[in-house]
Design goal:
By secondary structure, the chain is an alpha+beta fold. Helix content is 35%, strand content 30%. The chain has 22 helices and 76 strands. Strand 20 (832-842) and strand 21 form a beta hairpin. It starts with a helix and ends in a 6-residue tail after the last strand.
């Protein structure tokens, strides 16, 4: 690596040497000047100093000409010396090349030597470190040897093995280090040898090195001389540039004078125009005032009309409320009447002996079915009306489009046409709105009759309700609708009409009596709880706005239950108490119930204060001493009050139950043997012994005589254990038999059944009440049997055989949690009904006996059917069902049988064969075929129940040659296999090829069997969900399917969808649609934003593309609507319509896309909290704060009252406290209700609003919203002025953009500036910098490391100090600066990115160019002042910018750089054009001549500031001057004013003419002249000379004399005002008149403070020579306090009109 670096450095040096040599070759000739530069430079510098010294004494032209001449001479001398340069010899180019190559070689040799030294040094360092390592290893090895010896002596084998391993490792390391030391020593020797070789090479080249130094010094001398020549050239160029600058300044001064003259004229014109404008403005203001007065009168009238409308609306609302109340009462009465009717129907059904639940259920199903039919018919009607109206609208729209197109071609003027089109569009929208409103109202009337009271929409289906509504309301609503149809006027009060609801509508909540009852009940419960709470001793526990209700501690488990315990054992259970309050709480054990203290012990360590959600453990130990069930509770005390945990100890017991109480054997032939079982179950933990025997009162079976046929109903109720296969209700079965019942018995049974039905409806009863009801029914049954005993015949035990008997198991042991099966045998012997009662007795005295009964029917027929009830289950129409019927014969001979089916069902049911022979004591099989037709309900008659769809067919078996019949019944439930599709037709309407349209279809299974279905043969543009159109429908189930249509091209679609059932039945669904190909398309129709924090921004981009470039539909798909015309090729415009409350911004929302182009669209999602939610939270917090404040005040008052009433008894204290508490609560409620603020009154910048916003933002749980944004498309280029009004937009070409917008809580929030995410710097002056601090806080539970986005590097915003890691809850401050460089608004977004969320700061600021207007433009002349006195003047500066300006006033005379400026040439040496210093004569006393007040401050935007300038000279001078600069913000000079003034010792002065003295006074201080010396020197030389130049223009048609003037003035004294006037006079007037001079006023007086102008004119006399100039001298004498004389030099000359003046 080092060799590579050296080679690279060598290559770079060679390149630099080559470049240097090329430059040297180019400047070879220039280097020959080095021998003559010193001499030439010294000589020319001396000449330049002489030129500058002499040029200052001359005029402007002379100085410039002199410098030009000198510079020319210097250039000539330079050329002369350059000509002689070739004679001077310099170092040749080849010599320099040799020097450079030698230098390079020597440098390379030095580098190699240094490199070798470095390598040797490194090798030595390595060798030393290696030797050091060897020493350390040897020491450690010695230490290990000593340790090994010690451990060997100690006999520690483990430590010895470890030390030996260490010894081996150290030995290997030591060997490696020694090898490494040898290698390093060898390399060191080699490197030292190479280093010595390089040092010998350096010694050889030592001579060349010394020669190189000498050559380098010579080259350095040449370079220095060459640099001096270049400096001299630059000086000459600077002189030429200075000369050019002076000429430019002269031209600029002339241009400035011209500009001032023009500006004066403009000011005069502006004043005249201003006076005219003021007149016109007054007249226009008068007219505007009159107009405003008229408009105020109109607005007052308008407000009165609105007030009247609101009052009328209020009256109508009150009247409608009364009507609603009457309607509610009527509905309650109707509901009560319906309940009465239902109860009567129940009683009637019970009187008939029917099934009440079944009949009521069927009646309700029938009513619901009729309602569904009626609703379906009305829905079909409305759907038909909608379809017809849509068809008519489409036809009308097509006709209108054609007419509008023809009108646009015929009419050239566009204004009227646009108005008509707008009117038509508004009318069309209104019709659509009315149609939709009517359709919606009709659908509401179908759904709920209680919501069908809208005006104009009351139909005959609810005629009873509509009759009770006043006829006036209906008439008014009808008239209102007619007025809307005619006028189409928009509402004057949009807030009253926009609710799209009628005043007569009644909400479901108000009409529902159940909800009203629940509300009233909740209110009563709440009031009771409040009263109970106020009488307690504990206070409410409120934390962070939430009140802790209920128990403050929850136990887990909620009940301590020791089940099935044994005496003498010890049981332990652990429970957990959880603090369920909102604050820190404590828990203390109080005790347990008194009767449990001998058995229960509790181990509880009080945990102290527990935070919310924390828990503690309790161990409960139970040691039973007695075998009894115990109940009690464990009591605790908490901060809010006492609470308890229930405790229960249950001993082992037997819980016995039968699975059924009635065994029905059915009908059997005499001689058979039938067996049934009944289960005895023990669900307890204690076993017992049982014994089954017949009941004591039923020693023999009861039998009815065969001569008394009838029906007997017996009912049994299982009150203990219900059957698992049957429902859990208390009533298990109802058995009907044909036996005779007396009238008394029937009445009692009717009463019993009514009780059973009542028990079935009241499902909330407890198990004990159910058992009691079952026992009552059993008692009633036993009474019924006793009453009917006189009709029953009792047989003696010898004559009557036992037909129902027990099986083998009659007694035994039943263990815990087990069951036993008991067998009951029925052996029919005598024809008739048989009944037996059995009782199960138990050894355990706590177990009550269980009773059950068995019934059976004996039939004496030689042929019987083992299964007399053949159940075909559920059958469908047009499907064949078969079954095999087995017939048994007990006869001892063959019998001939004939099978008959009733005539009504002969078409549907058949028995094969119809005749058969059964052998003796054998069986015969008959085939039953059942094929139900659709005519079954008509043919079957009474055998078929259309409501329940149950078919009961009696089948007769005739025994030929014997007049006996055997009957059996075929049962079946016949149902249809139809699937109903509603609606049967779907019109998807217009659908673009970029979207899918969804329609909902309801598929109903009319069968009571589940059916599989599936839509097959679907076209590629149709999709059915869910499960792709396949599934299973349960009986009578309705399933809503989504039919999704997506057009693949623009055309009209008409197709059918086929739904097949599992039996291959087909059901058709016809569909229609129109495919639309819009002219534009979106690159993405779905935008899924990332989870965005509140007040953050997520942005997504997409494109609106126009791919329509050709109308040839053969080559590519063209945009069109269905089969309509193709859209024109050209620019196509679009517009996104975003809803008002949508937190989404689309830019640009309107635009035009050219063919083949695309437009970029940016979609921004900015989630925020709703203003209404923030206001509600703010009101809630204010109310809570007010309530707590009032409660604190009440407590203070209570404490004061209690302190005053210490002498009163305790009982009176308690009563008074109760009264105070009740009164305080009333006061709190009144205060709460009176001081509750309104949410609308809160301002967004209030503290409550900001606090609520911050609270909601911190507790925001997140939300997910979907938005669908329509994009309207129109052909043509959008007009920026008129927008999209001039383009026709088809609603069928609309594109839709779906947005998924998830909002989450922010991880970081802004806490400064009330939590605003906008950093507004406001107005800042251009070039100035403002800094703002923004504090952010981490509100997440995680530690965050924010990352910041990059601001514009060329922009004005700068992130001065970002923040690092943020701990949870930590606040940190950002610093952002703003320094604008232009006069405009600036806006940037700063993203603070976290791992999950992002916080966006909007940074705005405006750069403002500060501008001011000064009342004084450039010069402020203070005039003449007596020396030692003061005079003031005022000027005004107005701030015309939009920001506050910080100013400072600076004078050049007080500048800190004035001393440096004085080091330049004196200003009196230079001409007036070259003077840049405006500071003139200054005071001798060191004080400033001019002073300004104020010197610094601020001027608000649009305001002005007056400044006072004070002129206070202390000696006489005419050249007092200074420069005043207005500096803004300490940087920019906004305005410059030249201050001038003159001072005299005497109150008289003369002004005018050309000044002949120097404007800068001498540095020597002249003493003031005494009055005696002034009198003596009156006849001496004049004080001052004044030159008046008069130029007469020759050649004009009318001669005009040359004119000029002098000003003579008298100064007004400030301290001692003299009333004496000043006199002036001219001498030598005759001489002046002889020479042609005319003085207007040669003699006169001037009052103090006045100035008089003396006009002087000159006409050349006849003998005047025009080529010569005339010079005449005269004396001007001034007499005042003293006498002064001025020499006036009158210079006159003649100037030709054609010759330019010099």
């Amino acid at each position: 690596m080092e060799d590579n670096e050296i080679s690279c450095s060598k290559e770079e040096e060679q390149k630099s040497l080559l470049l240097f040599l090329e430059e040297e070759e180019k400047e070879d000739k220039a280097g020959q000047l080095s021998n003559v530069e010193e001499h030439w430079e010294g000589e020319n510098e001396y000449k330049l100093e002489e030129e500058l010294a002499g040029g200052g004494k001359m005029g402007n032209k002379d100085a410039s000409e002199g410098i030009q001449d000198k510079s020319d001479s210097s250039m000539e001398s330079l050329q002369h010396y350059l000509g002689d340069v070739n004679n001077i010899q310099a170092m040749k180019y080849t010599d320099r090349v040799c020097i450079l190559t030698l230098q390079r070689n020597l440098k390379e040799l030095n580098d190699i030597a240094k490199e070798k030294e470095l390598v040797v040094q490194k090798a030595r360092d390595k060798l030393s470190t290696c030797q050091l390592q060897i020493k350390m290893l040897t020491k450690r090895l010695e230490y290990v040897d000593t340790e090994i010896e010690k451990e060997e002596e100690a006999g520690n084998v483990a430590a010895l093995s470890r030390l030996q391993a260490m010894h081996r490792r150290l030995c290997t390391e030591l060997e490696k280090e020694k090898d490494f030391e040898l290698k390093i020593a060898l390399t060191l020797k080699e490197n030292m040898l190479e280093m010595w070789q390089t040092e010998t090479e350096q010694g050889k080249y030592e001579i060349f090195h010394e020669q190189l130094k000498k050559d380098e010094e010579e080259l350095e001398m040449q370079y220095q001389e060459r640099a001096k020549v270049r400096i001299w050239k630059e000086k000459i160029a600077a002189l030429q540039a200075e000369e050019n600058r002076r000429s430019r300044e002269k031209k600029e001064e002339e241009a400035q004078k011209e500009y001032e003259e023009r500006h004066k004229k403009m000011l005069e014109d502006a004043k005249r125009n201003h006076e005219k404008a003021v007149c016109f403005l007054r007249k226009s203001m008068a007219r505007i005032h009159e107009k405003n007065a008229k408009e105020e009168v109109k607005t007052q009238e308008h407000m009165e009309r609105r007030i009247q409308a609101v009052l009328s609306l209020k009256n109508s609302i009150t009247s409608n409320r009364e009507k609603l109340q009457t309607l509610q009462v009527w509905n309650k009465a109707m509901a009560f009447e319906a309940k009465k009717q239902e109860m009567k129907m129940r009683e009637a059904i019970l009187a008939e002996g029917g099934n009440v639940a079944k009949e009521v259920f069927l009646h309700k199903r029938l009513l619901e079915h009729e309602k569904e039919k009626q609703a379906f018919r009305e829905q079909q009607k409305t759907r038909k009306i909608e379809i017809v109206s849509q068809i008519l609208q489409e036809k009308a729209s097509i006709c209108k489009q054609k007419k509008s197109q023809s009108c646009t071609k015929a009419i050239k003027g566009g204004g009227k046409l646009e108005d008509s089109l707008l009117w038509r569009m508004k009318t069309w929208q209104y019709i659509e709105k009315i149609c939709k409103h009517s359709a919606g109202a009709m659908s509401q009337s179908q759904c709920s009759p209680s919501a069908c009271f809208s005006a104009g929409e009351r139909t005959a289906s609810i005629g009873e309700i509509s009759e009770k509504i006043p006829h006036d309301v209906l008439c008014e609503s009808g008239e209102d609708e007619r007025e809307r149809d005619k006028t189409l006027v928009e509402p004057e009060f949009p807030g009253l009409w926009s609710q799209e609801c009628d005043l007569h509508k009644i909400s479901n909540e108000e009409m529902d009596p159940k909800q009203l009852a629940t509300r009233a009940g909740k209110k009563e419960i709440f009031e009771k709880k409040m009263e109970e709470f106020q009488t307690g001793i504990f206070h409410k526990q409120i934390l962070s706005g939430r009140e802790c209700k209920g128990c403050t501690f929850y136990s887990k488990p909620s009940c301590i239950h020791f089940k099935d315990f044994d005496v003498g054992e010890i049981y332990k259970k652990k429970i957990v108490l959880i603090n369920a309050s909102y604050s820190v709480n404590f828990c203390r054990l109080v005790g347990i119930s008194e009767w449990l203290k001998d058995f229960i012990s509790i181990h509880f360590d009080p945990p102290g204060k527990m935070s919310a959600g924390m828990s503690c453990e309790i161990v409960v130990t139970f040691k039973p001493m007695i075998n009894e069930t115990l109940e009690g509770e464990v009591m605790f005390m908490a901060q809010r009050g006492s609470f308890s945990v229930p405790l229960k100890c249950t001993a082992k017991r037997c819980i016995l139950a039968l699975d059924k109480e009635l065994i029905d054997f059915g009908s059997h032939v005499v001689g058979e043997k039938i067996s049934r079982t009944i289960n005895l179950t023990n669900s307890g933990a204690l076993g017992t012994r049982f014994k089954v025997q017949t009941s004591a009162g039923d020693s023999s079976t009861c039998r009815a005589t065969a001569k008394s046929p009838g029906r007997m109903v017996t009912q049994h109720f299982s009150g203990c254990v219900p059957d698992k296969k049957v429902s859990d209700g208390p009533v298990t079965s109802v058995v009907e038999k044909k036996e005779q019942i007396c009238p008394d018995g029937s009445e009692e049974m009717t009463h019993c059944v009514a009780q059973v039905e009542q028990q079935r409806t009241e499902t909330s009863l407890s198990g004990s009440s159910t058992e009691q009801l079952g026992q009552d029914v059993l008692n009633s049954r036993s009474d019924l049997d006793a009453d009917n005993a006189h009709n029953l015949v009792e047989f003696s035990p010898e004559e009557t055989p036992v037909e129902i008997m027990l099986g083998k198991v009659t007694e035994g042991e039943i263990g815990p949690f087990s069951s036993v099966k008991l067998q009951i045998i029925f052996v029919p012997a005598i024809p008739g009904d048989v009944r037996a009662e059995f009782v199960i007795m138990f050894d355990n005295s706590d177990c009550k006996p269980l009773c059950f009964s068995a019934t059976g029917v004996s039939v004496d027929v030689p042929v019987w059917v083992p299964n007399p009830n053949i159940d075909l289950k559920i059958c469908m129409y047009d499907r064949l069902y078969q079954d095999c019927i087995v017939i048994q014969s007990r006869a001892k001979a063959m019998l001939r049988l004939k099978f008959e089916v009733c005539k009504e069902l002969s078409k549907h049911m058949e028995l094969l064969p119809k005749t058969g022979y059964v052998q003796a004591q054998s069986s015969f099989s008959v085939q039953l075929k059942f094929l139900p037709r659709h005519s079954l309900p008509e043919d079957a008659g009474n055998y078929f129940n259309e409501e329940t769809r149950v078919l009961e067919v009696p089948v007769t078996i005739l025994i030929v040659d014997k007049a006996k019949k055997v009957n059996f019944t075929v049962h079946a439930i016949v149902t249809t296999s139809d699937l109903e599709i509603s609606p049967a037709r779907i019109n998807f309407g217009y659908c673009t090829i970029y979207e899918a349209v969804q329609a909902n279809v309801t598929l109903t299974n009319k069968s009571i069997l589940p059916q599989e279905f599936g839509f097959v043969g679907l076209p590629e543009f149709v999709e059915i969900q869910p499960n792709d159109g396949f599934g299973i429908l349960l009986p009578l189930e309705s399933l809503t399917l989504d039919i999704i249509f997506k057009a693949n091209k623009a055309k009209e679609y008409s197709f059918e969808l086929t739904c097949k059932s599992e039996i291959n039945r087909q059901f058709k669904l016809s569909c229609k649609a129109v495919g639309v190909h819009p002219p534009l398309e979106l690159s993405h129709s779905l935008v899924q934003f990332a989870a965005t924090a509140l007040n953050g921004v997520s942005t997504a981009t997409l494109y609106v593309m126009n791919s329509h470039v050709s109308v040839n539909h053969f080559t590519r798909a063209v945009p069109r609507i269905g089969n309509g015309e193709v859209a024109p090729v050209g620019p196509t415009s679009f517009e996104f319509r975003v809803p008002e409350d949508c937190p989404v911004t689309i830019t640009p929302s309107v635009g035009t896309v050219l063919p083949g182009k695309k437009s970029l669209i940016q979609v921004s999602f900015r989630p925020t909290l709703s203003d209404q939610l923030i206001r509600e939270e703010a009101v809630r917090r204010l109310c809570r704060a007010a309530a707590t404040g009032a409660e604190i005040q009440k407590r203070k008052k209570d404490e004061k009252r209690e302190g005053k009433k210490l002498s009163i008894s305790i009982t009176r204290q308690q009563s008074s406290r109760q009264l105070v508490r009740d009164g305080g609560s009333k006061y709190l409620t009144s205060l709460y209700s009176s001081e509750q603020p309104k949410s609308k009154e809160l301002k967004p910048d209030s503290d409550a609003y900001m606090a609520a916003q911050a609270f909601l933002m911190r507790n925001f749980s997140g939300r997910f919203e979907k938005y669908i944004i329509p994009c309207f498309v129109a052909s043509g280029h959008i007009n920026e002025k008129k927008g999209s009004e001039n383009l026709s937009c088809s609603p069928y070409n609309t594109l839709y953009l779906e947005l998924h917008c998830p909002a989450v809580a922010p991880s970081v929030v802004v806490t400064s500036d009330n939590g605003k995410n906008t950093v507004n710097f406001g107005d800042v002056a251009v070039g100035h910098r403002m800094i703002k601090q923004i504090t952010i806080q981490n509100i997440s539970p995680e530690m965050l490391e924010p990352a910041f986005s990059v601001l514009n590097p060329s922009g004005p915003f700068l992130l001065v100090r970002p923040v690092g890691m943020l701990e949870p809850g930590e606040n940190k401050t950002l610093i952002i600066s703003f320094c604008p460089n232009e006069n405009k608004w600036f806006f940037e977004m700063l993203d603070i990115r976290m791992t999950k969320t992002k916080l966006t700061l909007s940074i705005t600021g405006r750069g403002v160019m500060p501008s001011i207007v000064c009342s004084v433009e450039e010069v402020l002349n203070m005039g003449y002042v007596i020396a030692g006195e003061k005079v003031t003047s005022t000027f005004k500066i107005q701030n015309t910018s939009t920001l506050t300006l910080r100013y400072s006033i600076q004078l050049d005379s007080l500048s800190s750089t004035r001393d440096k400026d004085r080091q330049r040439l004196p200003s009196f040496i230079m001409s007036s054009l070259q003077r840049t210093e405006f500071v003139g004569t200054q005071n001798y006393n060191g004080l400033s001549v001019f002073s300004i007040f104020p010197t610094e401050g601020e001027i608000d935007a649009g305001k002005s500031q007056d400044f006072i300038v004070t002129f206070s000279p202390d000696h006489e001078s005419l050249y007092y001057s200074d420069c005043l600069k207005v500096v803004l913000f300490g940087k920019k000079i906004a305005h410059v004013i030249h201050l001038k003034g003159a001072a005299r010792d005497h109150p008289m002065f003369v002004e005018g003419g050309v000044p002949l003295d120097v404007p800068i006074e001498s540095l020597a201080v002249t003493l003031p002249v005494s009055p005696q010396e002034a009198l003596k020197g009156e006849l001496q030389e004049p004080v001052k000379s004044i030159l008046l130049i008069l130029e007469y223009i020759e050649g004009e048609s009318s001669p005009v004399p040359a004119m000029t003037e002098l000003k003579v003035g008298a100064i007004q004294r400030a301290q001692f005002a003299s009333k004496k006037n000043m006199e002036f006079s001219f001498d030598s007037l005759p001489l002046l008149q002889q020479k042609g001079f005319t003085i207007e006023s040669a003699k006169g007086t001037v009052e103090p403070g006045q100035v008089k102008c003396i006009s002087v004119s000159w006409m050349p006399p006849a003998d005047f020579c025009a080529d010569d100039a005339l010079l005449v001298t005269a004396l001007l004498t001034l007499k005042g306090d003293i006498k002064e004389s001025y020499r006036i030099l009158f210079m006159a000359k003649v100037v030709s009109t054609y010759a330019p003046t010099k």
